[in-house]
Amino acid sequence: MSTQGHDMQRGLKNRHIQMIALGGAIGTGLFYGSAETIKLAGPAITLSYLIGGLVIFFIMRMLGEMSVDEPVSGSFSHFAYKYWGEFPGFVSGWNYWFNYIVVSMAELTAVGIYINYWFPNVPHWVSALVFLVVITLANLMNVKMYGEFEFWFAIIKVVAILGMIIFGLFLIFSGINGQATGLSNLWTHGGYLPNGLGGLVLSLVPVMFSFGGIELIGITAGEAANPKKTIPQAINQVMWRILIFYVGALTVLMIIYPWNQVGLDGSPFVQIFSKMGITAAATLLNVVVLTAALSVYNSGIYSNGRMLYSLAQQGNAPKFLEKLNKNGIPVAGVLASSGMTLIAVILNYLIPGKVFMYLFAVAIIAGIINWTMIIITNLKFRKAKAAQGEADKLDFKTPLHPYTNYLCFAFLIMIVVLMTTIESMRMAVYILPVWLLILWIGFKAKKSAR
């Protein structure tokens, strides 16, 4: 209950939920982070995304099972608090907030990289600051405004990727100058697995960054007009979206251009068409990747405001964050989250050019904590439902429960172990226990203050 007498509004329609789900699956991880994956896996990047996508699909089904049964704002933090305990609820909520703060910082950093394609002399921090202000203002209006922003952002991404796939297929079979590209780039530069199985397995680490934030589908349940219908639809479509937008687009890129000539100094999508001399396509794609970054930042501000609101309702955050304005917007939560992402602006000012990979690694670790919490909470949720005799009445069951829970959990442990072998990501693994200790201290401080 809001301290201002207002409630959250169910202003997100089916088309909004569908596009929010899609927006969560298509962002900087695909458009920029895929450069790192290509370096590790080569043409087998498509297989990397299939494996990672399958794991994420199962985790989303676990979240969906709970969200459809209890469509509340705050999503898995609420479920962890209710079915696991106070500390897991505290950890789940604050870690999700922290995760999306880091992801939002990475997206703001990527915005500066994309703007430099047209204006190379504009500092990254300037671009980041401008877009931070614009997106924050949009999120302070009403939830429908957020939904409309995200709807059109996602439409641009979808149309552009489909257009790129179609144009890429044209190049493969006809060629710009009448000479077809053919399929040989998939195996003539070291083979389909140029770095062997080791490269494929290592590539799963940056792949998982691409899926960070997809759990936003569950966060929208509290403001969805018909959650029992729209949430299952959105989650079930995640798999084919990954097939089309990730696997389809990257397969086309790997065919039309040698994988070993893709650099790390920009989006592979823009680089490839630019190096092929198709500047119009490169410029258009740069608009798209910029839109994608803004889309994820938009979702970050939205979800973080709601998570702080949920934490305040639980008593796990200051009460002022529970306040809603007349439009049902958690203004304090939105402004607090937006204010934290200002750190990205400062970092881009202090260490330009190095920020993205640091944030990239920390975001993966925070995402792994989120997904692990969902997996374990779902096991406890199902156990509670079984004890109440309601397990068979669930409308949206996780396939092959509980075996998929255990499989996904083992996969996430493997990702953390792999991160210790990658120099640029090792520090993030060391941050993990420190972050959990900070959360434990915060929880104990909250308990003692009662």
From TrEMBL:
Membrane-spanning ranges: 16-34, 40-60, 97-119, 125-143, 155-176, 196-217, 238-257, 277-297, 329-351, 357-376, 403-422, 428-445
Topology class, membrane: Multi-pass membrane protein
GO cellular component: plasma membrane
Subcellular location as annotated: Cell membrane
Record key words, sorted: Amino-acid transport, Cell membrane, Membrane, Transmembrane, Transmembrane helix, Transport
Domain Amino acid permease/ SLC12A: 16-447
Biological process terms in GO annotation: amino acid transport; transmembrane transport
Family named by the database record: Belongs to the amino acid-polyamine-organocation (APC) superfamily. Amino acid transporter (AAT) (TC 2.A.3.1) family.
This protein's name: Gamma-aminobutyrate permease-like transporter
Protein's organism: Desulfosporosinus orientis (strain ATCC 19365 / DSM 765 / NCIMB 8382 / VKM B-1628 / Singapore I)
